[in-house]
Amino acid sequence: MNPQGFDEFYTKTFARVLSVVIMASGSRLEAEDAVQDGYLSALRHWEQVGGYEQPDAWVIKVALRRLWRSRRAHQRKRQPLELTVPPQAAPDETAHAREVLSALAGLPADVRIAMITCSVLGWTQAELAEVLDVPRNTIANRIFRGRAMLRVQLGLAGTLVGEQDALVAAPRRAEWSVVPDDDPVDGLLLQAERWLRAAVEAEPETAEWIMEQVTRQAAAPPSRWRHPGRTVSRWLGASGRAQPGAAR
Fold this sequence. Notes:
Layout (H helix, E strand, L loop, with lengths): L5 H20 L2 H17 L1 H4 L5 H21 L15 H15 L3 H12 L4 H8 L3 H18 L2 E6 L2 E6 L14 H18 L2 H15 L13 H4 L13
Antiparallel strand pairs: 1-2
Helix pairs in contact: 1-2, 1-4, 1-6, 1-9, 2-4, 2-10, 5-9, 6-8, 7-8
């Protein structure tokens, strides 16, 4: 039996966590493995992690670190995403989401991770730089590259004004005018994440299977843990608030 509060936390956060990790990974299989590692780490440290304001930040950070370690291998074997269509999604919404996800999956792994964590999760560039142990300017450059690449692939036109993207939807994307006028790239990513989260929720067997794996592995003796030696204090602030901030 899992510690008090963990099952409720898992049920509440799973769809959101898996959806953003799929977007950061570009691979459903790799994302599921990374999310499993994240929840397993949270369960093993639940006495401390469960007391933090945003325990899902712990799960996402562990998952991102796994993606970061495996990014080069994954780039050599990219596969299309296979997802259940949310029953409540309109056909045009599904078509738009799939197009955004396909374009996103085509980005280099380091660029994709930066785009999702900062544009969808709302992390600052400095926070992500600390997690990945790279300079902040590196993260800024990756986001800049990602925006430029997505603008081309998604048919967006515009110019750069200062540090903000001043973009407008091209005529063939007029049906996407519901996204924020000042930042259509972020708007399209957020729309795709909402669709993807609903797709994950439409497959409860995925959450059930991963929970089974997490519970089984957590019951193994510490000598057989796959990631020994990690400490909560290194990844979470002493104040009790998970850093960087989790999903909005």
